[in-house]
Amino acid sequence: MEGDVTDKLEDMATVCEFDPITGNIPATKVEISVSCRYGALLEPNPHYSLCILYTQGVESKQWREFGRTEVIDNTLNPDFVRKYILDYFFEEKQNLRFDIYDIDSKSPDLAKHDFLGQTFCTLGEIVGSPASRLEKPLGGIPGKKCGAIILTAEELGNCRDCVTMQFCANKLDKKDFFGRSDPFMVFYRSNEDGTFTICHKTEVVKNTLNPVWKPFSIPVRALCNGDYDRSIKVEIYDWDRDGSHDFIGEFTTSYRELSRGQSQFNVYEVSGGIIYHLITGQLSLPVTLLSFSVEAEHTFLDYIKAGKTLFFIILFSAFEGNPSQSTSLHYMNPYQMNAYAMALKAVGEIIQDYDSDKMFPALGFGAKLPPDGRVSHEFPLNGNVDNPYCNGMEGILEAYHQSLKTVQLYGPTNFAPVINHVARYAAAVEDGSQYFVLLIITDGVISDMAQTKEAIVNAAKLPMSIIIVGVGQAEFDAMVELDGDDIRISSRGKLAERDIVQFVPFRDYMDRTGNHVLSMARLAKDVLAEIPDQLISYMKSRGIKPNQTPPDCSPEAGLSPTSTI
Q1: If phi over 0 gives left and psi between -120 and 50 gives alpha, with beta otherwise, what is residue 392?
Q2: Fewest CB within 10 angstroms: 101, 235, 276, 385, which?
Q3: Which stretch of DSSP H or E encloses residue 504?
Q4: HSE value, Cβ hemisphere, 13 Å, CA-based, for 392
Q5: Which one, of 10, 134, 147, 143, lies nearest residue 78 by Cα?
Q6: What Gene3D superfamilies does this protein's entry cite (predicted)?
Q7: What mean pLDDT do residues 490-495 have?
Q8: How far apart are CA 435 and CA 469, in angstroms?
Q9: pTM of the model
Q10: How far is CA 444 from CA 279, 325, 411, 451, 480, in A?
Q11: Which residues contact 417 (CB under 8 A, 6 or more apart)?
C-alpha cells in the first residue's frame, strides 16, 4: 500500500491563488512532510501506520479531513512519502490536527482501526520552528505515551517541470538466504539543516541481483524544489516481509548531474559498507541511470485553454420516499430547497461555466414511468427520451420538480446502467477532446454494488470522472468504498487504472449557523477538487498534450450538445 507519491504532489495550483471563501490571497504554498517515531512504545506488534490531517474552519471551528498519507507497513519509525500541500496565510491562525492510526483492514471507516495518537498545532508553528521542523509528542490516549510526530514544512517553488527516470543495478548484495535480493530504491532531497526528506520509493524488484526498475515520474519541485544543485540521496534496500528491510548501500547526486542522462557521469559506485565488503569482497557496486527526460507539467487550465471540453451529465437517485411527505429527501418545501436541489445548485453553478451552451443531460433512476408503470434505472428528467437536455441549472431544477409529480419513485437503485451508458460515449472520444463528468446525487442506497464496481473499473481507462453526493442520514460505507482515494477500487481481480470517483456526504456541509451560501461553497469546492487532477491523469496516461489538435468530433464519434443520451 506504499507508493503513489505523485498522487498529491501533482495537484498543485499557482502560488497566488484567490480563495473565494475567505477572500484572502495565500502568501505561498507549503509542503508538509510527516514522520512518526514510536520507539519501543508499540512493540512487539507490527503496525500499518496512516496519518490523517484535519484542518479547522475559521468560522465554524469544525474539524474537516484534509487528506491522508499512504499506509506504511511494519515499521515503528514511518516516514510518509505522500505530502500535504497547504496554502499559507501569515495573517491567519491555521489550526491543524494530525491523527495516527494502525490500519487493520481495507475498510476506510476509521472506527474499525486502532487509534495510535494525535497532535495539534498551527501551520505557523511548523513554519516558524527552527529549520521549519517541529517535533511534538503524540497524545490522545489517557495514561499512555504514544511516541512523537515530526512535521517539516518547505515553501514550494514555481517550477512546473516533471522528470522521468529509470535505473538499474548490477551484482547487488545477496542478503537473502537463497542468494537473491528483493531490492528497491528510496530517494531523498536534502534540507537546509543537513537532514533529508523522503520524496520517492520505487517498486520492489523480486528475486534478482541485477534489478531493472520501472521508469518513474516525479515533479522537479518534489525532487529538489527547483534547486538543480541540491543534494539528492538515494538508498537501496533489500525488501523483507516483516518490514526490517536490509540496507544495501547509498549514493548522492543532484538534479544537474542526473540531467546529463545516460553517460559515464551517471554510473554510481554505491558504497555498501563494511558488511557488504566482508560478504561480497567488493567495496562498491554500480547503479546506472538508464534514461532521463524532462517536460513541462501541464495544468488543468492548460487543457481548458487549449479547447478541451468538459461535458457534464446530471443523475438523480429517485427512490427515496413519497415527495409529498416531509419525511422524504425529495420533499418540495415551498420555502426551502431540499437536499437534492441544494447539492445540484452548489455544484452546478460552478460546472456550468465550463460548458459553452449550458445545456445538460439530466437523468433519474429508480422509478416507475407513466403511462404503463415501467421500472426504469435511466430516464430523462424532462420526459423527453430523444432530447434529455435541460437549459442550465434552473432548467434542471424545473425538470427535476416536474418529474417528481409524474413518476412513481421505486427501487431498486442501480448505478451500473447509467455509468456504462456514459462510458460508451466516453469510449468514442478517447483523443481527449472531450472529458465527461457524471454527477450522481443519491441517498446512498445501491442495489448493484458488484456491477457498479465493475463499471467503474472499466470506466477508469476512459476520459470520464464520477462525482457522488450522498444526501440524507444513511450510512455511506458503499459510497466510500467506491471512492478510491485510499484503496483503489477493483473488480474480479482487476484494479482500476485511475481513481475517477469522488464522494462527499452532503450532511457534512450543513452549516449550523444557517449560512447555506457558505456551506454550499465549501461543498462545491470539495466535490470538484479532484476533477482537474483526474483530467490531467487521463491526458498524461494517453500522452495527450494541451496543444494537440484533436480530430473533428462528429455526433457519431462523441457526445455533442445536440446528441441524446
Answers
A1: left
A2: 385
A3: strand 501-505
A4: 3
A5: 147
A6: C2 domain
A7: 91
A8: 20
A9: 0.67
A10: 59, 20, 13, 16, 10
A11: 365, 377, 378
